[in-house]
Amino acid sequence: MAAAKLSPTANLLRRSRLFALPQALDLPPEPPTSKSRADSDTATLPHPIRPSIVTPASSLARGDWGFKRPLPAKSTSLKSSKPVVRINAIDTFEHVTDFESAADHTMTLEKFQELHLPMSLPAKVNYATSIVPRHNSPFETNVDNTETSKPINEVGSKQFRHTGPWLAGLSEADFNAYLRRVQKDKPEILRKLRDRFTAQLNAERKKRAQDDGQDLATLAPIQVTDEDFQRYIKVLRSDPASLGPVLFDLLDLPSPPAVPSDRIGQVYYQSPGTKLSSSEYAVWGPPSTHPSAGLSYSRSHALIYNHPNNGPQTYQRPVEARILRPKGRFKGKSAKAIAGVGGIAVEDVNAMTFAEQGAPAGLASFDATIPGGAKYYVTPFRASVDSYGRIQLASFRATTAAKVAYGIQEYKKPSTGPLTPWMSVDEFTRDQQRIVPRLDRPRTSPLPISSQEPAQKTEDVARNLMRTLSSS
Amino acid sequence: MIVRQLCLWQSRQLLALNRQAYALRRFLSTETETQTAVETAVQTPSEEPTTPIPSETALESSTAALSARGTAREAFWKKEERRKQFRRLGSVVTDAYDPGDLIRNPPKPSDITLELLLASQTHLGHSTSRWNPQNSRYIFGIRDGIHIISLDVTAAYLRRAAKVVEEVAARGGIILFAGTRHGQKRTVVRAAELAGGYHIFERWIPGSLTNGEQILGHCEVKVVNALDEELPEYAEKLEDNPALKPDLVVCLNPIENVVLLRECGLNNVPTIGIIDTDADPTRVTYPIPANDDSLRAVGVIAGVLGRAGERGQHRRLAAAKQGVLEYRPTSLNLDLWEIWSWDYM
C-alpha cells in the first residue's frame, strides 16, 4: 500500500485535522443573464463553501484555534459568546491569518434545526391550487442512490447523480471538452453498445421462444456478427428517436429539460424518462449536493409536539417571520411579499390578493411605525434544497389554532379609532393649536375619557342597591 | 317575583362593587398550620472559649465576629474534605490537552514526539511567497499556500538544542531566554525559571552586549560558589569588572531580535533560535525550524529547553555536593580575572 511507504511525518500530517479540512467549494454560479445584478460581495452566500471551525473554551481564551497563529480575541471571543470562524488563508504575505466569522451559516443551520422539518425532494409548490406537494424524503432507499449504489438496477429506482454531465448546463467549451473525452473512449462505448445489442437480441429471442412454447434450455445464445452490429448502428443513426435513449443510457447522462412544445412534431433525439429523483432536477439540472444537503437527517414529518397543558398539537410551534419586502410592484412587476424565516428568505404565499382582510400589519405596504419592524407568524411545512444548493422553504401563515396552543399573539397595531376633536388634523389646519402632531407615531389618546363615566355609574348603582338591601 | 327580578338585573351591578375579591387559593403557606415538624437550619454559634473574657461590649462584638469566622472556616474545611472525598469518583480523562500545562508542567526533552509537535502547530510555516530559500532543507512541502516544516527535522533540531541548553546549564553557564512577542511573557519567564537562567520579554536594549559597560554597568553582580551560595567577600573585587555576558542566548522570535543575534555573533555568544520559513537560519548558531507565531508551539519549545536547563542545573548541583566541579576552585587572594579566564578556557 502507498500509505505504508509514507514517512512517519507524512502519515501524521495526512491524518491531522488541519489537512482533513475539505477544500473550498466553488462559488455558486451566477445566473446566465446579461442583466446587471445588484448584489453584494459581502452578502451571505446561499450555501457555505468553507467549513466552520470552533475551538474549546480553554484554547479560545488563549486565541488558539489550531492555526498558524492565535486569532485576535477582539474579533472572536470578545465579539460573540459562541465564536465560529472560517479560514480563507492560513497565512498571507502580510503575515496575517485571513479569517472571518462563520456565524451566518452556523446560525442559519441552528435555526433551521429548530424548525423540526425533515428535508424533502424539491417539488414545485403551487399555492394557487392549495394542493401541497407531498413530503418525499431523499433518504428513501429507492431514491437515495448514486451510480454506484446497489439498488440502482431495480425497477423504478431513482438516483440523484449521474456520471455524465448535464448537457443543458454545459458551456460550449465544456461541451467540446466532453466530446473529446467521449471520442477517446469510443472503443469502450462501442463494446458496451454491442453487449447491449446482444442482450436485446437474446431477450427478444427468448420471448419469442416462450410465446411459441419451445424448450428454453436448448436455446443457444446468439452470436452477433460484425455485419449485424454495423447494420444495427446504421439503423440507430438513421432514427434519432431510437438513438436518443441508447445514447443517454450508454453515456449515463442525466435527462435534459423537457422539449419545447413547438418542437414536439419534429424529429429530435428523444431522451428516456428521467432517472433523477425529482422532476425539478430535470428542469434545473441534477443537484450539486445530496438532496438533503445535510440540513436534517430525519425521514419523517410525523412529529408531534406534546404540549404540557394542551396535549399533542397538530402544528409545530409557529415561527416569527420578518417581512423583508412587502408585496407590491417592483420594477414594473407585481411581486409577492418576501419574508425571512430563520434566516431563509421565503416568498409569502398567502398574499395573493391585494386587498386582504386581517392581514398582518406591514405586509401590504412598508410600515415604519411597527416597533422592531413588521413580523408575523408562519408555519413552515416543506423544506428542500434546489439544484444550486439553495434552501427552498415553503410556509403557510400560522392559523389561529396553531398560535393559541402556544400562547402566541400576532402584533396588533394600536387602533387609531375616530380622531378625537383635539387630535384632528383640522384643528391644526385652522391654526387653533400650537402643538405640531407627530404623524409618524401611532395615535393613541392619552386619556380614556369615555370609559371612565360608565364605571362610575355602575358603582353608584351598586352602592345604592346594597344600601337599600341592607336597610330593608 | 320582584326580588327575583332585582337579583336578575342588579347582580351585575353587585359585581361592580368595590370589595375584596374572593381568593380561591392561599398565597402564603404560613397561613395554614401543619402538623409536620419543619426543621429549620439555625446557625448555632461555636462554643465560646473557656478562658474568662472581660465583659466589655466592644470585646463581645469582636468575639462574635471571631466565632462567625470560625464557623465559616469550619464550613470551608468541611467542603474541602467533601470535595477530596468525591474527587475520586467518576471517570478520569487522561491525555486531555490542557493549555495551562505548558506553563505548569512543560514537556521534557524525552517527551518530544512528532504527535506533540504536530498538535502544537510547529509544522505550519509561512506563506510560500515569504520563504527564505535557505530553509528549504527543513521544509516538507506546500499545503494551502503555506510551507509545511518537517516534523522529524523539528524534533531532531529541538533535541539537539535541548542538549546544548542542558550542557551549558550543567557547566554553570548563564542562559538568557529572549521572547519579545505579545503573549510570550509567561512562557519566557517560566523557561528561565526552570533553567535557572534570565529572561527578556519586553525589548532587547541594543548595545547591551557591545556597549555593556554603559548600559549594564550599574547592574548588581554577585559571586556564588559551586552550590549557588553568595560569596559577599568578592564584592569589592567585582567593582572594576566588565558587565556580564550570557553564555547562551535562546531567542524565541529571531525576526524581531536581529540586533540581539548580531551582538551575540560579535561577542561569540552561541544562540538558539526558532527559525520559521521566513527567517534567516544563519543568524543563529543552533536553529530550531518551527512555527514561531503560535503561542502553543513556542510554549512547547521554550518548555522543552527550560526543562533541559533544569536537568543541567540539577546535574551541576548534585555534582557540586559531591565535590566534583567543572572549574578549578579559587580563593580570595587570586585575581578575579583568573576566574573569568577559567570560564573561557
Topology:
The complex is a heterodimer of chains A (472) and B (345).
Chain A: H1 2-5, H2 8-15, H3 17-20, H4 57-61, E1 85-89, E2 98-101, H5 103-114, E3 119-120, H6 172-184, H7 186-212, H8 226-238, H9 240-250, H10 279-284, E4 305-307, E5 311-313, E6 319-325, E7 328-330, E8 333-335, E9 338-341, E10 344-347, E11 375-385, E12 391-397, H11 400-405, H12 425-429, H13 449-471
Parallel strand pairs in A: 3-11
Antiparallel strand pairs in A: 1-2, 4-5, 6-9, 6-11, 7-8, 9-10, 11-12
Chain B: H1 2-15, H2 57-87, H3 101-104, H4 114-119, E1 124-127, E2 139-143, E3 146-149, H5 151-170, E4 175-178, H6 185-195, E5 198-200, H7 212-216, E6 248-251, H8 258-266, E7 271-275, E8 286-289, H9 295-321, H10 336-344
Parallel strand pairs in B: 4-5, 4-6, 6-7, 7-8
Antiparallel strand pairs in B: 1-3, 2-3
Helix pairs in contact in B: 5-9, 6-9
Pfam families (chain A): Mit_ribos_Mrp51
Region (Disordered) (chain A): 23-55, 433-472
Organism (chain A): Aspergillus lucknowensis
Characteristic key phrases:
heterodimer, A: 472 residues, alpha+beta, six-stranded mixed sheet, two-stranded antiparallel sheet, 13 helices, 12 strands, 29% helix, B: 345 residues, alpha/beta, Rossmann fold, five-stranded parallel sheet, three-stranded antiparallel sheet, globular, disordered C terminus
Please provide a written account of the structure.
The complex is a heterodimer of chains A (472) and B (345). Chain A has 472 residues and is α+β, with helices and mostly antiparallel strands. Chain A is 29% helix and 12% strand. Chain A is built from 13 helices and 12 strands. The radius of gyration of chain A is 33 Å and the shape is extended. The N and C termini of chain A lie far apart (111 Å). In chain A, 19% of the residues are buried. Chain B is α/β, with parallel strands linked by helices and 345 residues long. Chain B has a domain at 111-326: Rossmann fold. Chain B is built from 10 helices and 8 strands. In chain B, β6 (248-251), α8 and β7 (271-275) form a beta-alpha-beta unit. The radius of gyration of chain B is 36 Å and the shape is globular. The N and C termini of chain B lie far apart (131 Å). At the A-B interface, α2, α4 and α13 of A face α1, α4 and β1 of B.
